[in-house]
Design brief:
Blueprint: E1 8-13, E2 19-23, E3 28-32, E4 39-42, E5 49-54, E6 60-64, E7 69-73, E8 79-83, E9 90-95, E10 101-105, E11 110-114, E12 120-124, E13 132-137, E14 142-147, E15 152-157, E16 162-166, E17 174-179, E18 184-189, E19 194-199, E20 204-208, E21 216-221, E22 227-231, E23 236-240, E24 246-250, E25 258-263, E26 269-273, E27 277-281
Antiparallel strand pairs: 1-2, 2-3, 3-4, 5-6, 6-7, 7-8, 9-10, 10-11, 11-12, 13-14, 14-15, 15-16, 17-18, 18-19, 19-20, 21-22, 22-23, 23-24, 25-26, 26-27
């Protein structure tokens, strides 16, 4: 789908019924309608686009990790970028309940907020060296995020108030996080080889993977409310049943480095493979 050097990284379904994805090494944003041919839009080739999400304004928003910017791209490919303080390293981004986008600053120990017209506000975290990573909106009007180096999951309200929830497993290094359908958040522990679940009142449950060295990276929810995750270190994607049973699925290309994962417009799960492709994981009942 792309050359191996382009680095598909994160993926989401846009408001136009297409898959949108970042090409972290090529400095491009890609678009694919399932069954069609991919296209891409050039941005700053040095910007390192990472996470991408649909905004409340009908556009896609993404973080430019290397150039410390937040980007916006319309469904017809018009790009705007908004500068952040130098060296902050934006990574995760999600639409909030207040009509703004919220993002993490990995190198600055802050959570940021940007309005759809580009006004930025920053909120400091009560810890240092935390490396805040992914972020997702909960159903409690808060934003939930992982603290990769502080081994915690945090919540920030739209008023900027922050609460931290330490993880039971030491040095678990959480990365991806997403909102479930039952009022909980799901996250992955890349260093511990576990999937985590946290309620909005802070109760945490951890589910060990069969391969604790699989290095789970990202997590998304399918149409039935089931969490799916990528195993970056094991060339697989997996899912977690309500009873805690884990099912894993090998990817056909060896060493493909699955990163982001999302529910596609066709009802299948799609994952971005850093070695240069998108992979479709069909539901069990899917004949496609």
């Amino acid at each position: 789908m792309t050359d191996r050097a382009s680095g598909p990284y994160a993926i989401t379904t846009g408001p136009d019924g297409a898959l949108w994805y970042t090409l972290v090494h090529a400095g491009r944003i890609g678009r694919l309608v399932p069954g069609g041919e991919p296209t891409s839009h050039r941005i700053d080739p040095a910007c390192g686009p990472t996470i991408i999400t649909s905004g409340p304004d009908g556009a896609l928003w993404f973080t430019a990790y290397r150039t410390h910017r937040i980007g916006r791209i319309t469904t017809d490919g018009v790009v705007d970028e908004f500068p952040l303080p130098s060296g902050c390293g934006p990574f995760g981004i999600a639409a909030g309940p207040d009509g703004a986008l919220w993002f993490t600053e990995t190198a600055a120990n802050r959570i940021g907020r940007i309005t759809t017209d580009g006004r930025v506000t920053e909120f400091p975290l009560p810890v240092t060296g935390a490396f805040p990573s992914a972020i997702a909106a909960g159903d409690d009007d808060g934003l939930w995020f992982t603290l990769n180096q502080t081994n915690a999951v945090g919540r920030i309200g739209t008023d900027g108030a922050v609460t931290l929830h330490p993880l039971p497993t030491e040095a678990a290094a959480p990365v991806g996080i997403t909102a479930g359908r039952d009022g909980v958040l799901w996250f992955v522990e890349i260093a511990a080889g576990q999937i985590g679940r946290i309620t909005t009142d802070g109760r945490i449950t951890e589910f060990p993977l069969p391969d604790r060295a699989a290095r789970p990276h990202a997590v998304a929810i399918d149409g039935n409310g089931t969490p799916w995750f990528t195993e970056w270190g094991a060339n697989r994607v997996g899912s977690l049943a309500p009873d805690g049973t884990v099912a894993v699925h090998d990817l056909p290309t060896p060493g493909s480095e699955p990163h982001g994962i999302a529910l596609g417009p066709d009802g299948a799960m799609w994952t971005a493979l850093e070695t240069g492709a998108l992979a479709r994981v069909a539901p069990a009942a899917d004949d496609g």
